[in-house]
Amino acid sequence: MVTNPSSRSMGTVAMRWHGDSLELLDQRLLPTEEHWITAEGAAGVVQCIADMVVRGAPAIGISAAYGVALAARHAGADDWQAEVSQAIQELAKSRPTAVNLFWALERMEQVFNSCDSLSDAAKRLAAEAVRIHEEDLAANLAMADHALGVISPVQPISVLTHCNTGALATGGYGTALGVIRRLHEERLLTRVYADETRPWLQGSRLTAWELSRDDIPVTLNADGAAAAIMASGKVKWVIVGADRITANGDVANKIGTYSLAVLARHHDIGFMVVAPSSTVDMSLASGIDIPIEQRDGTEIREIRGIQLAPAGVEVFNPVFDVTPAGLIDAIVTEKGVIRNPDIIGMRALFS
Ligand SMILES: CSC[C@H]1O[C@H](OP(=O)(O)O)[C@H](O)[C@@H]1O
């Protein structure tokens, strides 16, 4: 029996699996509209990932896994192997930076390679996608436990976060936002400062929405205000997610993360990265090897069709940057914590 893991996670969810169809909450429309899209087969999932209906490294991987399951479900009896293979290839092209996508597709491909009939593939690929989803939720809960051990606050603290790493970006609960959620549950959180996260505004549109829904105290700030917030002594930790972590502990995350790490070091504030092991890519030696997605300049020139800049002005829009391991105090995964990450610490946990 294929279940919907989202039904077991508390509160906000990004996706709903029904055994034969996948619904995605359209994150482009939040916070003003809660609209669910039914993905039209694997091609529909590719479109939803590329257009950022669903986004966030773990959520992309989970959605892609469901996309492969849908490909098997919709495949023709004669050509099912070619159709599923093709779907895996198309899904792999949907976004380049978050390694969770490729990790999930590899897991699905392994199952697919051992299937001997279409009905076997349809059943087992759906079950594997659900497992990937469930494991991600469990990893988030485990990471929150580990992170609390690192922070070990004796009294409530305020923290600063960037982008959206919550239930919307994952299989549920969240990575960095899961840690923040746990601090709140333990009454150890005074307030979250949430960077608005230009240009796509994951912070203002998604994080502020998620936290407000759960009555977690949040103050939204322009990205440029982070330095002043840190200088004021208000925050003890900067807590962020990741899209890819390389063998030496370098971290690709939403554009603007690197500058936060520099600022945190200057102000002697802890800098924590929270990500499941599916975000770790030990095949890349360092962050310089990470493919950084460049998105269309329209994301900076306009907001929802409203012109913000001279039409056609040249735009530089890399949507991720790389934070060098040396600026990170702790990488928290469900397998454990790497303090002051380097290749030795990474290998100790991931090889
Ligand atoms: C726990 S999500 C990791 C990550 O995904 C976000 O990117 P995007 O919204 O472009 O998919 C961001 O970098 C988050 O930190």
TrEMBL record:
GO biological process: L-methionine salvage from methylthioadenosine
Keyword presence, Membrane: no
EC number: 5.3.1.23
Catalytic function, reaction form: 5-deoxy-alpha-D-ribose 1-phosphate = 5-deoxy-D-ribulose 1-phosphate; 5-(methylsulfanyl)-alpha-D-ribose 1-phosphate = 5-(methylsulfanyl)-D-ribulose 1-phosphate
Residues forming the catalytic site: 243 (proton donor)
Keyword DNA repair on entry: no
Gene Ontology molecular functions: S-methyl-5-thioribose-1-phosphate isomerase activity
Classification via InterPro entries: IF-2B-related (IPR000649), IF-M1Pi (IPR005251), IF_2B-like_C (IPR042529), Initiation_fac_2B_a/b/d (IPR011559), M1Pi_N (IPR027363), NagB/RpiA_transferase-like (IPR037171)
UniProtKB keywords: Amino-acid biosynthesis, Isomerase, Methionine biosynthesis
Pfam families reported for this sequence: IF-2B
Pathway info: Amino-acid biosynthesis; L-methionine biosynthesis via salvage pathway; L-methionine from S-methyl-5-thio-alpha-D-ribose 1-phosphate: step 1/6
Residues that hold substrate according to the record: 55-57, 95, 202, 253-254
Protein family according to the UniProt entry: Belongs to the EIF-2B alpha/beta/delta subunits family. MtnA subfamily.
NCBIfam families: eIF-2B_rel, PRK05720.1, salvage_mtnA
Physiological role: Catalyzes the interconversion of methylthioribose-1-phosphate (MTR-1-P) into methylthioribulose-1-phosphate (MTRu-1-P). Also catalyzes the interconversion of 5-deoxyribose 1-phosphate and 5-deoxyribulose 1-phosphate. Part of a bifunctional DHAP-shunt salvage pathway for SAM by-products.
Protein's name in the database: Methylthioribose-1-phosphate isomerase
